[in-house]
Amino acid sequence: MTAQILDGKALSAKLRHETAADVAEFTQKTGVTPHLAAVLVGEDPASAVYVRNKQRACEQAGLKSTLHRLSPETSQQELLDLVARLIDDNSVHGILVQLPLPKQIDERLVLDAVHPLKDVDAFHPENVGLLVQGRPRFLPCTPWGVQQLLASGNIETAGAHAVVLGRSEIVGKPMANMLVQRGKGGDATVTICHSKTRDLTEITRTADILIAAIGLPEFVTAEMVKPGAVVIDVGINRVNDKLVGDVAYEPVKEIASAITPVPGGVGPMTIAMLLKNTLTAARLQVSR
Ligand code: GUN
């Protein structure tokens, strides 16, 4: 069996078109253009590319985006001051602080400082709490994108055993949380595995849906995958100038029933969902 390819590039384009229409309608009705402020601290080349892609997608969908570039030596207070200014700026609806941040800055302190109504990444504890309780304000972009990809492939999550590899705040934890919620795209039986998990392969081989988000190139090998499983690869690793995921794509695609490529799988979905969250943020702020 060769797996169905879950094409994130195509799905992202479709969703971004839908969002563009929604943005146009919103702007026409309210006179307000949804506005994302992105903050990039330092010169990490990969982060610079991600932020540029996010900005370009905003512009194509009719959202305004501004980029705040800060030097790698920026102090924590300088960054907090910028976030405070963006919170006070009524023309800004969404604030995105690109991660990772330089080591002199306490990431958690900065993410906690973003106002929950402008928190389009859904990293603020209030938004995480709402998500856990099954009444989300914003859904976190990457897990939401994964959920959309599963839906597009008509992959049933209800009753499925979903195994999430990785327990990050950005992907692993919220992904597991979303899959376990009641309703569409949820109702899964969820296992989270991480670096201390014993007998990992025994667990991953019981997964109907295996989601790899650990940041280790081609970590998931064919022997770790149950034949017919759905494999979602959240990893983006640079190896000798080539991008590879957390999954050994070629061998795994021969035994999986569906798989996401890298690039062109989950990556573009994150951006599409960010645009949706920015529109949601604008709606929430305009209706206040
Ligand atoms: N760095 C890697 N992924 C993300 C993301 O989804 N949001 C932000 N802000 N930074 C990231």
Write the layout of secondary structure elements.
Elements (H helix, E strand, L loop, with lengths): L3 E2 L2 H23 L4 E7 L3 H16 L3 E7 L5 H13 L5 E4 L9 H7 L11 H8 L8 H12 L8 E5 L6 H9 L8 E5 L6 H5 L4 E4 L17 E4 L3 E3 L2 E3 L4 H5 L4 E2 L6 H21 L2
Parallel strand pairs: 1-11, 2-3, 2-4, 5-6, 5-7, 7-8, 8-11
Antiparallel strand pairs: 9-10
Q: Any idea of the CATH topology of the largest domain?
A: Rossmann fold
Main pleated-sheet profile: 6 strands, parallel
Give the helix level as a range of percent.
40-55%
What's the architecture of the largest domain in CATH terms? 3-Layer(aba) Sandwich
Unreliable runs, pLDDT <50, ≥5 residues? none
Strand content: 15-25%
In terms of structural class, how would the helical and strand content be classed? alpha/beta
Global morphology: globular
Topology as a string of helices (H) and strands (E)? EHEHEHEHHHEHEHEEEEHEH
Separation of termini? 53 Å
Q: CATH class of the largest domain, anyone?
A: Alpha Beta
Q: Which molecules other than protein and nucleic acid are bound? A: guanine
User: How many structural domains in the coordinates?
Assistant: 2
Count the beta strands: 11
Please, what is the average pLDDT? Answer: 97
